[in-house]
Write a structure and sequence with these properties.
homodimer; alpha/beta; 6-stranded parallel sheet; DNA-binding
Chain lengths: 346, 346
DNA sequence: AGTCGCCTTGAAAAGCATTTCATAATTGCG
DNA sequence: CGCAATTATGAAATGCTTTTCAAGGCGACT
């Protein structure tokens, strides 16, 4: 509609933005290929030429057009990262956890000089994914949080698209995954309960999420492994990924309260504490509680929350590394990162 | 080095990924321009041709190569988003707040069919910024959190690069900003203290951050506006953006404790509660406390934290809208979004 | 001294889609 | 029925960089 304001003039500051490799070549009195070689650090150039070209390029603030580069190469040097905003928007993830993961990935990619394209929301089926990939928007995908999309990811794995997923690691998934030891994490929580002589355990979380299912399995393992005690593993409060104090409260309304709760996240654990307090139940007096992710506020919470800590510091770099291997044509194995328990008041 | 694994074969699934517009043209028995026109919804094509082309394209799962598109057009339809990971990694931001902002931006961009490029960390000076822009990685920038980079952003504003910043809005900044009413938020906190008859106020936060400085100013305004009371505004604990229970504790060690604390974030508020509790001080009995951002756990905290709520739901869309206007050549005005106080136990 | 081979450089093609301009086909009108 | 005016389509140029291939210049070796 408008579009005249900028089009008309060409003598302003805009002109400099149009600088191309040819311009640099002309100014340095060489050909474009030579400029290209210099800028890419090729050894096939005289030191003297190199310096001249670099000098000109710097003086004019020239930067290579990445899009032309991407077009020329088969590789785009771009990685699409998919976040689970969907559930986050509803207050679900809440933890800065995914954010930390993203920071790690961003850093690792930048080191390797890869662009990070945040994939649009709504890439929910294989078709949308493939289109996105074919449009060469990206060489590969990093999916942060598999959510309930496991099936989609599995069929994606067959499509020859480089893909790494943060989440549950299962041997038969058919795609490369990096994740923490959810089973082990769950077991740690259970062992904590055992050592506190708790007998009525409750798991809070939606086990349709593969990661959470594994944590639950770990918890069960611990229950079965307990000697001389019969553990009562209460039916799961199979609530959505979203956990609020209200949902917990309404669950509590019907039953005799548990004496141990394993919440799928620290944020959920906080909600649990609130709901239990309303019923007059205080941790650790009346029940034990273990959260997950070890987010900073958990340490300051009252009571301070015992939680499972995942090694997120290396996660980003690892995800990127695995993806790069795939892009090179390899088929790297999945990785399970260790977890540990941070024992606090609950 | 390797590179043979994929290169050699061409009969596998790879071949289909190489599908180009020419292929579609040949298959549909038309020319490339026609395919292009069809795919871009140009009216210059017969209905019959259109259908044939679309049919072929769909059948073969063809998707336009965005990089070629970007190269051809002056606009890349890509927006770079800059996050303040730096401080986050040190446990600083912590709040899911920035994350929410990002989600909003992502959604708004996807609606407008714009790619979201997460800009690499370390874009700290004007030069790096400009290079990034010139490389045509992006048509414009959205900066989430101005941090202490205000000066850099100002000089950037003069460089003819479309830019919108989430953060403090000041009339002389020279760049377009969208942010919440930090001054008003600070005043709300102060008024809360006044109504609770608190007299020794402490602000926790690093006022080198423009946003935080404004909140502090708002607090001061409320102090000055109080009738019949002399408010004692304690020297700021001018700690880094990172606030831990330890920093608060060491600050407390030297002075008579305040009876009101305004923390720059809910996460910081939680740290404050922890440190005060260690000194035997309980809110709201011994002091009032107001946080910022209204993150979910604040409601479940014990005591439940009174906080300032920002309208993040519209923020993302607004940021994108302002940026688009700039890319079109306009110079949109900055916007201040309203804040409100969520009064809870503290 | 002559030939071979290496090193540096440039011309041209390729990578994929869009846009301009020209052409062929069709319609409308006198 | 012939000419002008549309309309649908294609050829060629364009955007910017990288890669291949060829050529020219130089020293080294026999």
């Amino acid at each position: 509609m408008s579009g005249e304001a900028t089009k008309g003039r060409s003598g302003r500051g805009r002109a400099s933005a149009r600088l191309t490799m040819q311009d640099i070549a002309r100014l340095a009195d060489v050909s474009t290929p030579t400029v290209s070689r210099v800028l890419n650090g090729s050894p096939l150039v005289t030191e003297e030429t190199r310096e001249r070209v670099l000098e000109v390029a710097r003086a004019h603030g020239y930067a290579v057009n990445r899009n032309a580069q991407k077009l020329r190469h088969a590789r785009t040097n771009t990685v699409a990262v998919m976040l689970d905003f969907g559930s986050h928007r509803h207050g679900a993830i809440g933890d800065p956890f995914v954010f930390e993961l993203l920071a790690g990935v961003s850093e690792a990619l930048s080191v390797r000089n890869q662009d990070l394209l945040l994939s649009p929301p709504g890439l929910d089926d294989v078709r949308a994914f493939r289109d996105f990939h074919r449009a060469r928007g990206a060489d590969g995908f990093i999916v942060l949080g598999q959510g309930t999309r496991d099936e989609m990811l599995r069929s994606l794995g067959k499509h020859d698209i480089p893909l790494v997923v943060w989440g549950a690691v299962s041997s038969d998934a058919g795609y490369c995954a990096v994740g923490s030891d959810n089973l082990g994490g769950g077991r740690l929580a259970g062992e904590h309960f055992v050592s506190n002589r708790r007998k009525r355990w409750l798991f809070v979380g939606d086990i349709r999420h593969e990661e959470l299912r594994l944590r639950y399995e770990g918890l069960k393992l611990a229950a079965q492994g307990a000697r001389n005690v019969a553990i009562d593993l209460l039916p799961i409060a199979s609530m959505a990924f979203t956990v609020t104090a209200e949902t917990v409260a309404s669950y509590l309304a019907g039953v005799a309260p548990p004496d141990a709760v394993f919440a799928f996240s620290d944020t959920a654990a906080m909600a649990v504490i609130g709901a239990f307090r309303d019923r007059g139940l205080i941790a650790p007096r009346d029940y034990s509680l273990v959260g997950y992710n070890n987010i900073p506020p958990s340490a300051h919470f009252h009571p301070a929350i015992t939680t499972i800590d995942q090694k997120t510091d290396v996660a980003g770099a690892l995800l990127v590394e695995k993806l790069m291997e795939q892009i090179e044509g390899d088929r790297p194995a999945s990785v399970v990162l260790p977890t540990r328990m941070v024992r606090r008041e609950t």
